[in-house]
# Entry
Amino acid sequence: MSRSPAAPVFFKTSAACDAMAARLGLELVKKWQTDPEQLYVFFEQGRLGIGLAPSQRENPVAVDFAYALQHRHPGKELLIKALGGKRPTVVDATAGLGRDSFVMACNGCTVIMCERMPVVAALLEDGLMRANISIDTMDIAARMTLIKRGAADYLDELGESDCPDVVYLDPMFPVSGKSALVKKEMRLFHSLVGLDEDSAALLDIALQRARHRVVVKRPPKAPFLAERKPQLSVAGKAVRFDIYPLRAFPK
# Structure
């Protein structure tokens, strides 16, 4: 039986780390610990990242939108097709590392990213800050806003006129058949947040608040979220997007 992973700690690289560790509620350490599976949050080459100790020879996970701009995103065309409208407003209710949010913003969408886990939100905040000062990404980043709280509460408090065209959900699912990079990132997320046990409830509120549709990202052969059949699905080899319910966008 595998043991539960230890909570991440913050590795001190500068005086500024004290305040950030306190804000994230993480223990601050000055030495790498002996546990090879211990996760650390730390600054490296000007980026905030999370990962194992350098002795494990594994690059930390960080949010880098400049890198994302230069590399093809699997399922990009399907995602944009699933959104429907040319430039809809989207609430990414499970933002994670923000890759899908960035793809949507690249295609002209105005995106609200909701992330309730403090460490993951900090990675997103750091990546968005750097994107906002890079000439290559600043126009895209201007269409992205981070909300550091749960999407259910955020959506529930929106006034009718502020509801988004689309709510996008990418609930956590078990790792299988993915690249080494994605497996590493999913392992980190599972150790931080576990599975999304409230994804069915989130789907319910998303259906109440989206003006035109809810889009749910799933593995191609995965069951429908909450066993709820969508009105339409668009699928590729690596991903499927389930769409609930379809309402016409203004012309």
